[in-house]
Prior knowledge:
Number of domains of chain A: 3
Oligomer: homodimer
GO molecular function, one term (chains A, B): transcription cis-regulatory region binding
Keywords (chains A, B): DNA-binding, Transcription, Transcription regulation
CATH architecture of the largest domain in chain A: 3-Layer(aba) Sandwich
InterPro entries (chains A, B): HTH_LacI, LacI/GalR-like_sensor, Lambda_DNA-bd_dom_sf, Peripla_BP_I
Organism (chains A, B): Rhizobium wenxiniae
Radius of gyration of chain A: 26 Å
Domain HTH lacI-type (chains A, B): 13-67
Amino acid sequence: MPDEKKPAFAGNITADDVAAEAGVSRWTVNRAFRKDASISSKSLEKVRIAAERLGYVPDLRAASLASDRSNLVALLIDDFANPHKLVMMERLTRILRREGWDILLVNTLDRADAGHALLNASQRRVDAVILIGIQFDDEVLDTALHARRFRKLIIFARTSRNPNTISIAVDDVHAMREIANYVHERGYRRPMFLAGPRTSSAHLLRKETFVDYWRQHFGSEPETVSVAAYDPALAAGIVEDALMARTKATLPDILVCENDALAIGATDVIRHKLGLRIPEDIAITGFDDVPQAEGANYRLTTYRQPLTDMAEYLVKVLGSEEDRDFDRLFAGKLMVRDSA
Amino acid sequence: MPDEKKPAFAGNITADDVAAEAGVSRWTVNRAFRKDASISSKSLEKVRIAAERLGYVPDLRAASLASDRSNLVALLIDDFANPHKLVMMERLTRILRREGWDILLVNTLDRADAGHALLNASQRRVDAVILIGIQFDDEVLDTALHARRFRKLIIFARTSRNPNTISIAVDDVHAMREIANYVHERGYRRPMFLAGPRTSSAHLLRKETFVDYWRQHFGSEPETVSVAAYDPALAAGIVEDALMARTKATLPDILVCENDALAIGATDVIRHKLGLRIPEDIAITGFDDVPQAEGANYRLTTYRQPLTDMAEYLVKVLGSEEDRDFDRLFAGKLMVRDSA
DNA sequence: GAGCATTTTGCACGCGGGAGCAAAATTAAT
DNA sequence: ATTAATTTTGCTCCCGCGTGCAAAATGCTC
């Protein structure tokens, strides 16, 4: 046995080894590592010492296999160009971990790939799937839900009409009306709405709400432009195309953006390609309140999602055994800065 | 049995069920789902059909338990304020998944938490740990490595002197010299170096290299300023403090930043708080080439890391059974734009 | 078509630990 | 001290699949 020299790796120390070392049975060892277990403080101590000495940690694969609870959730994400994703991930991962959930991260390349991503997750027997991406059509969701390979499918920061999913999101309708009112109050009259990609399963109601509300309350029909992804660089290109050729009179006086990713791209191009000032020549609003929105460069008027509250609610939902309707909308907060 | 109405969830369909359905043995079913397996195309087809009908997918927990290979790697990350992290994650997750690796994402809160994060990973019996965070001191690494709970510990985008880790990174020394030469060639003579936090285990050699090289080759000693995290907002504050009170004559003529996160924060504050022009009043260089560095707003002169090549090399290392020194440095590319 | 090589299939056993119950030990009550 | 109530411990059986080998099936040669 030539490779016996270096002690392989210590993953193979099992509860049996610890049991022998501590002079108790294997089951007592395992109990020592479960929080609910009924165990005497004496043997708990013995086990702790023995485990420490041997470097034992319970194997969660085996525990999961036997108990049919993995304490694992899959986080499905795409759309890596959107800086808000980083914020969401930070918040979710921190809070999930605090509550004892491990995270399987799956990068969903595109719509066609979503099915594979879900399959991936189900093979690890995750307890729940959290979607913070957008590339899911209803067909994929239905397939996944029909197979029922996980207990919960949570759509985070998007609303969904699918009755079998749990949607935890900010109240877009309420938010967008607040933005519309604010925009109108500040005297803007020719808004243009900059929208992201339209998806069928994980919605945002921002564009629809803004356009309908503006039409109904302020009489005019806002222009709308759409970008194929929440990517500042892409948004910059689209906005340049849309505004470049215009005379100042035909320019919108404000660009209402579906989120900050778009707003940031728009800001850059308006300043540096069109040579216009913000907000004097054209104002801008965003949505999400990403970190850079607050920075000296953008000073973006935007709408903050209560991500921490949403994540806290998410872990509560994850922990719940009930089988009720967990959908919930949160109220955010309009952050008024200099851009509008 | 009241909860027998809705078909629970289908995770509990096992290879035995498929075997019965297909008229073969359980082992044949499992073989049908392994890539190496020796199986006749006839029974493969039978199994596929039966599995399809029943909605069976193999349980990777069990497979991993039995084979002692989890096909799981842990990705340890902190430092979520740095936009480059999003790029790294996108690249890594995409390429790892393409090669069949699943990813356990662990948000490492701080230095003290790193041990727990590693423990987390080891309980899932990951095959390898990838660090793309920085909050690791040598003590934690040594403990982890001593316990040898995983086969490989890879430090991505950082160099490490620890002989038991695998470091895959850009060649900072080479890169920084190139930057120093470029800066000097362009006529800058009073550089200030803006550094990030200093850590003991996962290094960057940028500051040391730049300062030493500049001193040796160009005679003067560059000022240096340090920021506690790679966070644009933090960097902005530090730069403001460092430069605010100065007269134009005592200002550095270029700010050489350890990475783009710092450069971006610095750019914002220099333009909008100090009211200076870039590069006319003060130039800036970064490192990493994050997406926004290319955008119209920053046009940042920076150094691109070959992330794709690095990630491809990483999966090659992961797949290798050899036990040799896998450390490797990559050459990047100076991206000259408008900021310097 | 017999005889042999080669592929395919089935099987006992093991991976590490959980659920639930019965035996043992401890504590409380009389 | 004795019995009953309670806690702790050990144990059997199982979770779902891989390993390595033996049995069965198939292919090949002459």
